[in-house]
Design a protein that fits this description.
- This protein is 21% helix and 29% strand.
- It is an alpha/beta fold and 576 residues long.
- It has 13 helices and 32 strands.
Length: 576
């Protein structure tokens, strides 16, 4: 393999097979270098690997596509290349506090051959390519390892330097990209690259020295801007707190996960969302939301765990499940979930709920609340835990002689006699009901756990007085709502819902939706609607052109009084 570094709007690396006079390109630049292709001993570029979506990297993709070159892009940024038209339509530009550099994107969409999945190894143009997640310059950036060389995009410019400081400021007051660049660089060294080849800058033949110098410079930037250094590298190196010899807490994320260790040399995770983050995620377009697996390197190094067999969610929220699909792809991890949680994970388009993950998450086991299952030497029990969300379950188990209950985001565990108050963490849009916390307090009294572990707060040693406080709090939550509200709130309490909530339909082809209470269904003019029973309807869309987010609604009448259209659903209609 010959490697040519072509100076363009970025450095385009051309990996040449002299025997076939073909090449694989790393990034496209402007594409003008194609005019000189024969000077590099190349007749045809078979493939191009994109490190990130910025226009200086991809402006030339249409020229390459026109010659039949296969275009491979980072999975997390595929929509910014293959569907950038939609991005331009929805991107906020007025009163904008989102500083991500995703407007430095292609002007028009370009079709891609496929995506490069994080941690995957692929054969591209006859070359073995390892794709590594390296967020920093953009959240979705990747680096490619080929024949020991690391093609790093704009992760690093040269020893002690990066190509852009502005790209590292993802939010209005943060330096998220700077901290993530440090973490990406340190993990890159795990692969002992022979050299680092950046998109802007110079080749680095001493990767260790280059990374250390750059991390030091980035730490200085963070300290000057935020007033304190980032602790992200400390968390990367020591992500776990031992709660007992076989139970670990991952401290790298705002949404904590837990590791149950088996003497067989494998592990089970309780929750696993955004590992090693700079702040709690706030949602947004798919290209801004990036799960990855940095803490697992320490699990392997310090505990000899090569594989996580099972992941179990306490509830469906993205900050607790975002990495589940990635875990399945990389480790073959199975997801085991309670019935209500599993249904949301597998069918997110059915629900109008906050914090849904973007793609379905298949679950290998569905476990009824009130039942249990065995994993290795542990018995896990599942219990309905409404409150923070209706779609949650407490998970009980015994480890090292300790009765443990994982309660997700239900409450803070902060109460101290005469001191800090306990805070019930309810959100109405999660299908909260006033009696939920009284029900969870009764569950805790019945199970009598010795340790409660939660999603965002420190583990809590359980005492009788603490359980009594939760009982008091549950009664108080119910009291204030009953005092404040009329007997029912069908609009904002989520009593009326339509499932599916997000429908992908084909013109002229019927689809079915179900309303949670007896209702009439309101559809756009010209559409057909047939009642199947009191709750279910068959709808046939009729459109002349593709429609995005057409609205249907449930009209509710109660005791002879019409209350209005109390729930909606959204329908994308395609012509075929």
């Amino acid at each position: 393999m010959l490697v040519h570094a072509i100076e363009d709007t970025c450095v385009v690396y051309l990996l040449v097979d002299p025997s076939s006079r073909t090449a694989v390109a790393i990034d496209a630049g402007s594409g003008r270098w194609l005019e000189r292709l024969s000077s590099y001993g190349v007749d045809r570029v078979t493939d191009v690997l994109v490190t990130h979506h910025h226009r200086d990297q991809v402006e030339g993709l249409p020229l390459l596509a026109a010659t039949g070159t296969r275009i491979w892009v980072p999975e997390n940024e595929a929509e910014l290349i293959a569907d950038v038209d939609q991005h331009w339509q929805r991107r906020s530009v007025v009163n904008n506090y989102d500083l991500h550099t995703d407007r430095f994107s292609l002007l028009e969409s370009v079709p891609v051959a496929g995506v490069m999945k994080d941690y995957s190894t692929s054969l591209i143009g006859g070359m073995e390519v390892r794709t590594l997640p390296t967020p920093g310059h953009t959240p979705g950036s990747v680096s490619y390892l080929i024949d020991g060389y690391a093609f790093t995009g704009d992760l690093i410019h040269s020893a002690g330097k990066v190509w852009s400081a502005a790209a590292l400021q993802w939010s209005y007051v943060g330096m998220e990209g700077a901290a993530m660049t440090m973490a990406s660089l340190m993990q890159l060294l795990d692969h002992s690259p022979r050299a680092l080849l950046p998109s802007h800058g110079s080749r680095m033949d001493n990767p260790v020295e280059a990374v250390r110098a750059t991390c030091a410079a980035l730490q200085d930037l963070i300290t000057v801007r935020l007033g304190t250094p980032s602790g992200l590298l400390d968390k990367l190196e020591a992500p776990y707190v031992e709660l007992s010899p076989h139970l670990l807490m991952n401290r790298t994320s705002e949404s904590r996960s837990y590791v149950l260790l088996s003497d067989s040399g494998t592990a089970l995770l309780i929750d696993y969302g955004y590992d090693l983050t700079t702040s709690i995620p706030t949602g947004g377009p798919r290209h801004l939301v990036r799960p990855w697996l940095p803490s697992l390197r320490a699990l392997r190094r310090d505990y000899g765990i090569d594989r996580v067999e099972v992941a179990v969610p306490t509830h469906y929220h993205d900050d607790h499940v975002a990495a589940f699909n990635l875990m399945r792809d990389v480790h073959g991890t199975e997801v085991w979930a309670s019935d209500p949680v599993a249904h949301v994970l597998e069918n997110p388009t059915h629900y109008d709920l906050p914090c849904l993950w973007y793609e379905p998450i298949p679950c290998a086991q569905h476990i009824a609340n009130g039942a249990g299952t065995r994993w290795r030497e542990y018995e896990l029990s599942f219990h309905a835990l409404p409150g923070h969300t209706l779609y949650a379950s407490a998970i009980g188990f015994e480890v090292d002689g300790l009765r443990v209950l994982a309660t997700g985001d239900q409450q803070t565990g902060s109460w101290e006699p005469g001191g800090a108050a306990e805070v019930p963490n309810f959100q109405y849009a999660n299908a909260f009901a006033a009696s939920d916390y009284a029900a969870s307090a009764a569950l805790y009294q019945r199970l009598q756990p010795e340790l409660m572990i939660s999603g965002h707060w420190d583990p809590r040693t359980v005492t009788p007085s603490y359980l009594d406080e939760l009982t008091r709090l549950g009664d108080e939550v119910a009291r204030v709502h009953h005092a404040l509200l009329p007997a029912s709130d069908p609009v904002f309490a989520g009593a009326v819902r339509i499932s599916l909530y997000r429908v992908r339909a084909v013109n002229g082809v019927p689809f079915t939706v179900r309303v949670s209470v007896p209702a009439d269904l309101v559809v756009p003019p010209g559409w057909e609607c047939r009642r199947v029973d009191a709750f279910e309807f068959s709808v046939v869309p009729r459109v002349e052109h593709p429609v995005r987010r057409a609205r249907i609604a449930a009209g509710i009448t109660r005791d002879g009084v019409y209350l209005g259209q109390l729930a909606e659903a959204l329908v994308d209609v395609h012509l075929s």
